[in-house]
Design a protein that fits this description.
Blueprint lengths: L3 H4 L6 E7 L2 E7 L5 H6 L20 E4 L2 E4 L12 E3 L11 H9 L8 H14 L5 H7 L10 H12 L5
Parallel strand pairs: 1-5
Antiparallel strand pairs: 1-2, 3-4, 3-5
The structure holds FE2/S2 (inorganic) cluster (2 copies).
């Protein structure tokens, strides 16, 4: 008699189709593969950072159908046929205004948190184009900066809201 698990065995790999930064992509994934793992490799989008892998640091934040999402806690299969935006997709041929602001304001030190901060900040400005500093601080509360560069990060988002960089 076959082992009960054999009758319900799930495939160990599957072909995932999703859209990343507007481009259709496919990848072979296992049931436990996270979106973060797929983005970094095989897709090679290493801007999204592998931090705590526990949902605590925000370094892995991407937009999933436009909403900030922790890619380390998202199964790749849950992104099937959905739109993912990573830090690589925030600008076009030129950096986005917020990306420029981060450079001009000195808002990136080691840079480990920067991708997550940019994704979160971009979403905030899309939802609320004129946030005050407390709204900015609340929006990035889930993004930890180990270099404690919060003041300049908030400055960069505020300067962008004021239209200083296009
Ligand atoms: S790596 Fe996802 S929250 Fe830290
Ligand atoms: S710039 Fe180093 S963690 Fe934020």
């Amino acid at each position: 008699m076959p082992h009960p698990a054999a009758a319900t065995k799930v495939p160990v790999t599957d072909q995932l189709a999703l859209r990343v930064n507007g481009e259709p992509q496919t990848a072979v994934v296992e049931p436990h593969t996270t979106l973060l793992e797929v983005l970094r490799e095989p897709l090679g989008l290493t801007g999204t950072k592998f931090g705590c892998e526990l949902g605590e640091c925000g370094a892995c934040t991407v937009l999933l159908d436009g909403e900030p999402t922790l890619s380390c806690l998202t199964l790749a299969g849950d992104a099937a046929d959905r739109d993912v935006t990573t830090v690589e997709g925030l600008g076009g041929a030129e950096p986005s205004p917020l990306q420029t602001a981060f450079v001009e304001a000195g808002a990136a030190q080691c840079g480990f948190c920067t991708a997550g901060m940019l994704v979160t900040g971009t979403h905030l400005l899309a939802e609320d184009p004129t946030p005050d500093r407390s709204a900015i601080e609340a929006a990035i509360a889930g993004n930890l900066c180990r270099c404690t560069g919060y003041t300049k990060i908030v400055d960069a988002i505020e300067l962008t809201a004021r239209g200083e960089f296009g």
